[in-house]
Amino acid sequence: MSSPPAGYSLPLQALWYQAKGDWDKAHQLAQADDSKAGAWVHAHLHRVEGDASNAAYWYRRAGQDVPATSLSGELQSIVEALD
Question: At 63, is the secondary structure helix, strand, or coil?
Fold first, then answer.
């Protein structure tokens, strides 16, 4: 599959591209969504990237605490919340 399933929101599309290894496309999609969900995914992507200060900014915008869980644990939480 070369594109996310039809009907995925921008944040879920971003996570789909991240899972496929395309961080840049994922980041572009997360940036295009002004919702709290988009900010949460944007924060997660910066955490994946290792940019803790930028991630912290986006967690604040999302109304989320910086997670104490693993990246995969956080990813699961995001997907469950957005699905």
Answer: coil
Which residue ranges make up each domain of the chain?
Answer: 19-82
Residue 11's alpha-carbon distances to 48, 75, 79, in angstroms, are 15, 12, 9
**Strand, helix or coil at 7?**
coil
Going by C-alpha positions, the residue among 26, 20, 17, 19 that lies closest to residue 46 is 26
Query: How many other β-carbons are positioned within 10 Å of the β-carbon of residue 13?
Result: 22
**Mind listing the pLDDT tens digit for each residue in 16-58?**
999 999 999 999 999 999 999 999 999 999 999 999 999 999 9
Q: How far apart are CA 63 and CA 51, in angstroms?
A: 18
Global pTM value? 0.94
Token couple for 73: 């644990």
**Count of beta carbons in the 10 Å neighbourhood of residue 26:** 24
